[in-house]
Specification:
alpha/beta, 24% strand, Spore Coat Polysaccharide Biosynthesis Protein SpsA, Chain A, ten-stranded mixed beta sheet
């Protein structure tokens, strides 16, 4: 019998977290009362990850990449191989609470207009929130993220790629996580924004709760300074790929020289390097925009207006 949802956990050298993550995920999946499968896609780990999964969790489906391809490509591959109509994405350094998977899945089962449901994560040690309900604002040409520690199920602009559930078929139809953001960051916000412009809704459910116990594998792999550049570059790429309203595009372009001038004056090399790297990807940006135009039903100003009164600026 085909499972009702598939859990996908990407892993790269996460041996320190896997037993805790997989044990908690197994309990949460069983507590949902729904048929399911749990998949770990291992991105060519060099630690004991594969042995831990094979020996300690034989009922978990293991997919192995022969070479390291990164977060987005790993997720896309696993989603394409999953067998359920709904897919739950969990980072390997999360420990889901018992009701988490149920709380991620049931809104999708009950509302066909919802593309994804995002969960809440808190620090394992302090219990302080580290990812809540996220929005964006466009103020005087400046694109700013905002957050809200919502207490109940509510609409959101972005789902968190490491703590969410979504519709498999539509995710694949959108092209999955775009490779333009490799090695990571902003690909979940990117496809969230595409879904909103296409007329889908995204929900945030604070009852879908998990504890975050990791140290950030991306920073360990690339270093903090490189990740800072990647985040700044991908923030620019997000805007160039997604913004289509002429007033928004024009205001964004006018704001950019001010940002670069300030970065130059402050000797902010990361900001300058990020801009240069983003420029090199302009052919990819244009190709992606052309492919996505068929999905766009709503404009940027409509989306920002819908969430104008939500969230505090980060």
């Amino acid at each position: 019998m085909k499972p009702e949802f598939s859990v996908i956990i990407p892993n790269w050298n996460g041996a320190a977290f896997l037993r805790r993550c997989l044990s908690a995920t197994t309990i949460s999946a069983s507590a949902s009362g729904l048929t399911h499968e749990i998949i770990v896609i291992d991105d060519a780990s060099s630690d004991e990850s594969v042995a831990i999964i094979s020996n300690d969790f034989p009922n978990i489906r293991l997919i192995r990449n022969e070479k390291n391809v990164g977060f987005g490509a790993s997720i896309n591959k696993a989603v394409s191989l999953a067998t359920a109509p709904l897919v739950v994405l969990l980072n390997n350094d999360l420990s889901p609470r018992e009701q988490m998977l149920h709380e991620l899945v049931w809104p999708l089962e009950n509302d066909p207009g919802v593309f994804a449901v995002s969960g809440k994560t808190v620090d394992w040690y302090s219990g302080e929130p580290n990812h809540v309900n996220m929005f964006a604002k466009f103020i005087d040409g400046n694109f700013r993220l905002a957050y809200e520690n919502s207490a109940t199920l509510t609409e959101t602009m972005f789902f968190q790629g490491g703590s969410c559930a979504l519709r498999r078929e539509q995710f694949l139809a959108f092209g999955g996580f775009s490779s333009i953001y490799h090695p990571g960051y902003w690909e979940d916000y990117d496809i969230s924004y595409l879904a909103l412009k296409s007329g889908w809704r995204i929900l945030y459910n604070p009852k879908a709760l998990a504890a975050h116990v990791g140290q950030g594998s991306m920073k360990r792999a690339y270093g903090a300074e490189r990740i800072r550049v990647v985040k700044l570059r991908n923030r620019l790429l997000f805007q160039w790929v997604n913004f289509s309203d002429p007033p928004v595009v024009s205001a964004s372009c006018r704001y950019l020289p001010c940002t670069l001038a300030h970065a130059t004056a402050q000797a902010n090399n990361a900001e300058i390097l990020a801009f240069r790297e983003a420029l090199k990807k302009l052919p990819e940006v244009e190709k992606l925009r052309q492919a996505r135009k068929r999905w766009w039903r709503f404009g940027d100003q409509e989306l920002f207006a819908r969430f104008a009164n939500r969230g505090n600026l980060c």
